[in-house]
Write a sequence for this structure.
């Protein structure tokens, strides 16, 4: 039972952190932020690897591998696409540097 | 229980994610934040391989490689304008993966583990909703299907039946964890996801992506609970909480409530106009007429929209603006927070064309200036200057804050056709006597305008 309580505690605290860290975002960054958060939940890949690695039957392995592919697309694609979006958000400073080149 | 070092490694990943989200909410640190998040994710995957020593190592690595290639190619190749639907798709596959993981864990859940089986049921059904909902969202944004709200008479009943059915199946699954019940639950979840997104109008779709994103986050958290994995629990909860708040912030920026966005059309709300009034006369002009208006103006405001992104006309627009400025015209860009198909779309696009940051002015800041503006040039935007948002309580966009383009002395629209905007409603401003329309692709029109302005 202590483990349940520990996990529940983590859940509640993480929920507060999640709200707190993005509470001051400007509207121009809504989309990259959404996309970045989207990439982060791609860590379900960890879960997919764990269950596939423990699977015994061929069917479960196949389903697990499918989950690994999907989760990897979510994670890798998510971070890459967010980076591409942010690449275009160079502030005035970044642009100046480019002009000096 | 895995080794202590692995637990600590997971904790470091979790901290990376928290700092990444924080950094993503400020323009200066955003890109670094995203990279930090990616580093945290890579660390987590490496730790998992070492700590859990999974069987079937080779197939798993191949699956990883396949997913990586698909993810990188997909996100590198896609055009800027198609990014929202790509994000939707990535979110959907994440939700699908979470549902599959939970289904596989079903065999491991035993009697008496009530909370774990509730978490499994939750992950299966919400993961499925997120998957199918995201697919429909993708289809809407990609215009594989109509962007207008889709409803049919039995939809509310079916939707409620779907919700009740998934609750009943979840209870069943908790009392008797059988795989086929889980599969059935998954199928019902898929149906509910489709029904959830069908009635949402095109312009509201980004908000739904954000909501489904939060859903997927929560499923990952529940999956983490089932597996006893603290990293999944923390990362999923973070995204779930941040995604929920972000959904609300985005809805607020459009002056809408999330409930209205999801269920407005189902309640028998409104789809005003709908093309019936399109026969009314409009004033359309040639490039030279418009160039004279612009060239002899004192003050011009540019309102960019999705059409600019589609035509990839941002560079031409910047050239035109620079030409006007060299003639002594004062030019500003008015950026509506939801212009385009995702918040911040226009900032990204104009930043790409190296438009100076100071010329991009946000809605609240510039709205008072329209009264003293000679000409407003609307490039491929429509809904964000539609006065119906102010005047017509029956319009779906009623209450959305808009740019007060109608207060300027003259308004010029660059449009491809008389087709209504993404929200699918008429824009009265198009028929206003002070409005001139220049039909054509935004890039062609801007190129012609640029040439014409040089000659006047």
């Amino acid at each position: 039972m202590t483990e349940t309580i520990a996990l529940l505690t983590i859940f509640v605290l993480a929920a507060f952190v999640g709200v707190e860290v993005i509470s001051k975002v400007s509207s121009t960054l809504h989309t990259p932020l959404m996309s970045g958060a989207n990439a982060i939940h791609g860590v379900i890949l960890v879960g997919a690897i764990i269950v596939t690695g423990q699977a015994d039957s061929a069917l479960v392995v196949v389903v697990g591998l499918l989950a690994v592919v999907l989760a990897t697309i979510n994670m890798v694609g998510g971070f890459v696409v967010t980076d591409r979006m942010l690449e275009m958000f160079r502030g005035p400073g970044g642009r100046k540097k480019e002009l000096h080149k | 229980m895995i080794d202590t070092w692995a637990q600590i490694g997971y904790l470091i990943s979790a901290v990376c994610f928290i700092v990444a989200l924080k950094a993503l909410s400020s323009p200066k640190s955003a890109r670094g934040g995203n990279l930090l998040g990616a580093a945290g994710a890579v660390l987590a995957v490496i730790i998992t391989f070492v700590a859990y020593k999974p069987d079937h190592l080779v197939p798993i690595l191949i699956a990883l490689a396949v997913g990586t290639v698909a993810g990188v190619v997909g996100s590198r190749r896609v055009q800027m304008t198609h990014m929202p639907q790509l994000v939707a798709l990535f979110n959907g596959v994440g939700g699908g993966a979470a549902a599959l993981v939970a289904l596989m864990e079903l065999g491991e859940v035993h009697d008496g583990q009530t909370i774990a089986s509730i978490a499994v049921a939750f992950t299966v059904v919400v993961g499925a909703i997120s998957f199918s909902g995201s697919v429909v969202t993708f289809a809407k944004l990609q215009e594989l299907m109509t962007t207008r709200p889709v409803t049919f008479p039995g939809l509310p009943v079916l939707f409620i039946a779907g919700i009740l059915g998934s609750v009943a199946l979840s209870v069943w699954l908790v009392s008797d964890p059988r795989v086929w019940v889980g599969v059935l639950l998954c199928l019902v979840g898929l149906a509910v996801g489709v029904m959830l997104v069908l009635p949402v109008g095109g312009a509201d779709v980004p908000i739904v992506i954000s909501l489904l994103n939060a859903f997927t986050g929560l499923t990952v958290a529940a999956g983490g609970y089932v597996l006893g994995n603290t990293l999944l629990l923390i990362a999923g909860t973070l995204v779930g909480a941040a995604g929920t708040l972000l959904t609300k912030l985005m809805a607020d920026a459009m002056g809408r409530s999330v409930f209205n966005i999801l269920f407005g059309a189902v309640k028998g709300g409104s789809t005003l106009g709908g093309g019936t009034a399109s026969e009314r006369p409009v004033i359309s002009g040639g490039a030279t007429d418009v160039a004279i208006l612009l060239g002899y103006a004192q003050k011009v405001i540019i309102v960019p929209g999705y059409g600019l992104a589609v035509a990839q006309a941002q560079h031409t627009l910047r050239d035109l603006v620079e030409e006007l400025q060299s003639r002594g015209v004062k030019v500003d860009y008015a950026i509506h927070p939801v212009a385009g198909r995702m918040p911040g779309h226009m900032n990204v696009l104009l930043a790409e064309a190296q438009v100076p940051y100071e010329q991009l002015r946000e809605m609240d800041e510039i709205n008072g200036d329209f009264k003293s503006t000679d000409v407003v040039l609307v490039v491929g935007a429509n809904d964000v200057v539609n006065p119906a948002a102010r005047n017509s309580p029956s319009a779906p966009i009623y209450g959305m804050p808009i740019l007060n383009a109608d207060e300027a002395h003259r308004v010029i629209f660059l449009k491809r056709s008389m087709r209504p905007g993404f929200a699918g409603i008429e824009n009265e401003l198009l028929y206003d006597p002070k409005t001139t329309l220049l039909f054509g692709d935004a890039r062609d029109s801007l190129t012609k305008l640029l040439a014409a302005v040089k000659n006047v």
